[in-house]
Amino acid sequence: MNFNSVHSVYFIGIGGIGMSALARYFHTHGKKVSGYDRVHSITTDALENLGVQINYQDDVSLIDTAFLDVEKVVVVYTPAIPKDHKQFNYFKDNGFKIYKRAEILGQITKNTFCFAVAGTHGKTTTSAILGHILTECGINATSFLGGISENYNSNLILGGDAISVVEADEFDRSFLQLSPNIACITSMDADHLDIYGQADELQQSFKDFAAKVSDKLFIKKGLPIDGVTYGIDEGADYDAQDVEIVNGTYVFDVKTPSEIIENIQLNLSGKHNVLNTVVALAMAHSYGVPLLAIAKALKTFKGVQRRFTYKIKTDDLVLIDDYAHHPTEINAVAEAVRELYPNKKVVAVFQPHLFSRTQDFADDFADSLSRFDSLLLLDIYPARELPIEGVTSEWLLEKVGLIEKKVVQKKDLFNEILNSGAKIIVMIGAGDIGEMVNPVTEKLLEEFE
């Protein structure tokens, strides 16, 4: 596709975090942009503030006439939309050029030098760290992020058109559309079994992705794929060493294949973020960015919204917001919380995401959630799915090995948090729990003024 010939772009599912980054990209490149989404959100509000028109009902009559010219309009959609979507089927039946989000991102990477970050966990933070390093070090890259960077208040770090940083998403095998030059694989835990069926199929897709990397592939040490390794005290090619916490900041050295860079400072919580930082450092270093410049850039990295984000941080009360929606991610959050607050009661508010994921990993979810002191469990967020008989939050709760645990409704959540008596609150999940965090924060601040 020649983007220069594209006049207008219509997004179906424009509020998705990946879709909205592409919408911003085309908008900043002077294209007319509009789209549909099911609900209003912080993301759609931000796009509308840029002047992007969005409609919220699946009604063909709501599509602006400027986006009905089959010769000038490109349609981009997310696979999460239902097959009977009226707007989508209108565009399909009338001969419009229609692409999945992954196909558009694939075309962008084909025309750029591409840094791609793959893995079942850690993609967004690693991509944001790498995008920040490149930007701070004068490398004019455009980074497409799966979350809102605190440094740029956006899921798009806009740079030039010669270099891209992208998340290589394994969902729907989307990452096989990409043309990566330098890439990493952070993890290959079983996930998206509604798509892959078996964990072996998921692993094979990562191997297929690895085969597409043209220049250099970095892998977390221990993964069953050949590449340059990284880790923490594992004898990896890029190895974090002497990791310690000083005044709430991680300080560590990194041994590279050629030298050691000392006293790197990272203002993020959790050992998993040390790993994310090491591989971002390795990717930038392999491109030729000096280690001292990378270390300087890392000092100013503020993180990604909903990735262990402090909403309240006082001596008496802490509220942490995190996107964790897989047992491995919840374990990482629990480990970080225990490391920072070893002797305090922690209540977790968790909203399961997808019936299929809840069913596939129920025992693992139960184990990870049992690492907190108290659990408030919201109903399962369905996203793109219909309910599965017997798979409910009540069913999951029975498996959790805690005394203090209950399923709560959204309207009762704030009072249940207060009743828990915990002063460390963690709100986790990938559904609309993210929309609940700010109201809970405001009420807690009022309560504890």
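The record above closes out task 2.4. Task 2.5 opens with a second protein, given below.
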Amino acid sequence: MSLVEIFSDIAELIARMNPQQVIGLKAPQQMSDRVDELMDKKKEGLLTSEEASELERFLALDLFISLTKARAQILLAK
């Protein structure tokens, strides 16, 4: 089983718990601010390797949450 398949299965499980709440998930403002800060530093070429790793983790989490929300929307549409 690939990592993508595992994430997909976990996203499905979470979405089934309470699809309406899953759709309403939103990142805390502090997290959004940090991502914006890291993205600005990346654009300016000032991102350290540690910050690049941090940004990658945030983006992976965002992708996973988006996948989970998409699964929840499909469940609610049925």
